[in-house]
Amino acid sequence: MTEMVFGTTPVRAGDPILPRWWRTLDKWSLACVLGLFSIGILLGLAASVPLAEKNDLPRFYYVQRQAFFGGMGLVTMLVISMMSPRQIRRIGVMGFAAAFVLILLLPLIGEDHGKGATRWLSVAGISMQPSEFLKPGFVAICAWFMAAAQMIGGPPGRLYSFITAVVVVLLLAMQPDFGQASLVLFSWLVMYFIAGAPMVLLLSVMGIAAAGGFFAYGASEHFARRINGFLSPEIDPRTQIGYATKAIQDGGFFGVGVGEGSVKWSLPDAHTDFIIAVAAEEYGTIMVLAVIALYCTIVVRSLLRLLRERDPFARIAGAGLACAFGVQALINMGVAVRLLPAKGMTLPFVSYGGSSVIASGIAAGMLLALTRTRPQGELGEILRRGR
């Protein structure tokens, strides 16, 4: 009966770790991640050259850095993808604790790099954004709390996860980094829904979040300026949104040609937040659709594989990681086409940035590990555990 419902497991006792890992891995999702990274390098060859020349650096300086950090991120992803759910939970909790401490230090030693928000730490000439590393750890610790709450005599894990989410969202909003705060809150709502939260509670939390947005609009000039720019019926052609919108329009379906785009010479963040505008201008809508298809494949395949998962932690954490991954990409591309207000959020594995690509590798590795095919135990054992 178990095999009819959940399918037979390909895991064999005594298998070496590498053959077992390869046989149980979601190879389609892995291929999509590699495809996104390759597209990021391709776009970086065009988008980062103007910035390198402006800073009197070698033409492919930023591409080389992206390849280096991307290689680190991919290696990290592959190593983490070989871990068990218990190991994922442990490294997630430890990673969350480390990133949380770094975020607490931002008001004292953080930098804003002229962006109007204190989000970065600089160590030995290398900048890092702790909030990027906080997200996968946040998902792991909240999923742990929620899974523990489902055990007989377990702790009030849902309450602990709610308190954790509130503290993290407030810390991110104080930077201010409302984009990452919204993403963290969204991932928590997804996990809470998977864990069986009542709809009334979820709607109440969304109402509180909306009220917080209105408060932030009145209290933060940084936030209000971005909202006003988004709501304005006129697009200033000299702004980043103006340049990005024109580039997307000029690209059409097939693009203006490789290396022929002009937006990369005007956009300060062409290699990071607005790299999809470079893709749309030079390669056209067909490239953008290919990028969207890769993200959708990762998210949909991960959620479908998690439907068979009986481990509450793996199911909840995997859903939170998959949805956060997809929504971050959606936000980045939505900003570029002016469907969403500017948020300063990178496109996972495509945008330039050491923190972004390494943190994306950690999150993708955790997702690949949690979606691997594994023995689910006997049905009777699962029923006894739920009594």
TrEMBL record:
Keywords: Cell cycle, Cell division, Cell membrane, Cell shape, Cell wall biogenesis/degradation, Glycosyltransferase, Membrane, Peptidoglycan synthesis, Transferase, Transmembrane, Transmembrane helix
Transmembrane residue ranges: 28-47, 67-85, 91-109, 159-178, 190-217, 283-304, 316-337, 349-370
EC number: 2.4.99.28
Protein's cellular compartments: Cell membrane
Main location: membrane
Membrane topology type: Multi-pass membrane protein
Pfam families, per the entry: FTSW_RODA_SPOVE
Keyword Transmembrane: yes
Enzymatic reactions: [GlcNAc-(1->4)-Mur2Ac(oyl-L-Ala-gamma-D-Glu-L-Lys-D-Ala-D-Ala)](n)-di-trans,octa-cis-undecaprenyl diphosphate + beta-D-GlcNAc-(1->4)-Mur2Ac(oyl-L-Ala-gamma-D-Glu-L-Lys-D-Ala-D-Ala)-di-trans,octa-cis-undecaprenyl diphosphate = [GlcNAc-(1->4)-Mur2Ac(oyl-L-Ala-gamma-D-Glu-L-Lys-D-Ala-D-Ala)](n+1)-di-trans,octa-cis-undecaprenyl diphosphate + di-trans,octa-cis-undecaprenyl diphosphate + H(+)
Coiled coil: none
Protein origin, superkingdom: Bacteria
EC class (word): transferase
Pathway in which this enzyme or protein is active: Cell wall biogenesis; peptidoglycan biosynthesis
Family to which this protein belongs: Belongs to the SEDS family. FtsW subfamily.
Identification of the protein by name: Probable peptidoglycan glycosyltransferase FtsW
